[in-house]
Amino acid sequence: MRTRLVLVHGSRVSGVQWAAHRRWLEPEFDVVTPDLPGHGSRAAELFTMDSAVAAVAEAVDSASPGQPVVLAGHSLGGYVAMTYAAAYPSRLAGLVTIGAAAVPRGPGAAAYALLGVVTEKAGRERITAFNDRMLQRMAAPEVFEAIRADGYWFDGVRPSWAAVMAGGRPELLAAVTCPVLVVRGQFDQLGLNAHRYAAAAPHGRIVTVRGASHLLPLTRPWQTCAIIAGFARGLVGAENRWSPDSPA
């Protein structure tokens, strides 16, 4: 039975963030990319951590009986993923967080809370244009084009990061019994406390990607796929059928 990968997106984008990754991973894995409340197909829904966990639970619980599930989340999605794992500590075969290993307090965390205010003052058109310019320059083309076509979602920024700051602590991982992989880019501002998060999990370890930023899944999608796929294979003893060097 193929392992299910549930990939949870970051702030301001939707599950489309994972469109290219999904194409590359699907020959080997059953891949699901849910939208969080306030984003994409759930844009009309209010973001709360409970509603976000419920969206992840829907993707996990729709797996076939006995099908192993690996949950991976980037940035906001990483904090949601670890909150889900804390609530259902025995449901997953494995958990991967990417760019979600900074204790949410202090000036760094406050900057994310202010992002919603900046968006409101600058206007959606200007922020959208800025996002497009930044991602076109930094992200892999196959990732950027999908995000640009889908658009950006701003209404969930303030409530989502308020929810993260209220509860996204390393202690969430203390009762998570499955293996946990904490992935951080070398220059990721949300990876500063990776060792604290990995140490909090009974079976946690860290992967640091040299030269990478917080946007690792967008700037290095193949490398991100290789990390997730290798972790998932190791959990269930899957045969190595997928190569990070060329599309399957």
Topology diagram in text:
Layout: E1 4-8, H1 19-25, E2 30-32, H2 49-61, E3 69-74, H3 76-87, E4 94-98, H4 106-122, H5 124-138, H6 141-150, H7 157-167, E5 180-185, H8 194-200, E6 204-209, H9 216-219, H10 221-236
Parallel strand pairs: 1-2, 1-3, 3-4, 4-5, 5-6
Helix pairs in contact: 1-10, 2-3, 3-7, 4-7
User: Main sheet: which strands, in order across?
Assistant: 2-1-3-4-5-6
Q: Report strand %.
A: 5-15%
Total domains: 1
Helix/strand-derived category reads alpha/beta
Biggest sheet statistics: 6 strands, parallel
Which superfamily, in CATH terms, is the homologous superfamily?
Answer: Alpha/Beta hydrolase fold, catalytic domain
Low-confidence stretches: 238-248
Average pLDDT value?
A: 90
- CATH class bucket: Alpha Beta
Report the span from N to C terminus: 19 Å
From the spread of the alpha carbons, the general shape counts as globular
- Architecture, CATH level 2? 3-Layer(aba) Sandwich
Might you state the CATH topology name? Answer: Rossmann fold
Record field, number of beta strands: 6
Number of discrete helical segments: 10
User: Level of helix content?
Assistant: 40-55%
* Radius of gyration (Å): 17 Å
Care to describe what's here?
The chain is α/β, with parallel strands linked by helices and 248 residues long. It has one domain (4-236): Rossmann fold (3-Layer(aba) Sandwich), CATH 3.40.50. 45% of the residues lie in helices and 12% in strands. The protein is built from 10 helices and 6 strands. The chain has helices spanning 19-25, 49-61, 76-87, 106-122, 124-138, 141-150, 157-167, 194-200, 216-219, 221-236, and strands at residues 4-8, 30-32, 69-74, 94-98, 180-185, 204-209. The protein has a 6-stranded parallel β-sheet with strand order 2-1-3-4-5-6, with helices on both faces. Helix 3 crosses helix 7 (157-167). The chain is globular, with a radius of gyration of 17 Å. The two termini are 19 Å apart. Mean pLDDT is 90; it is low at 238-248.
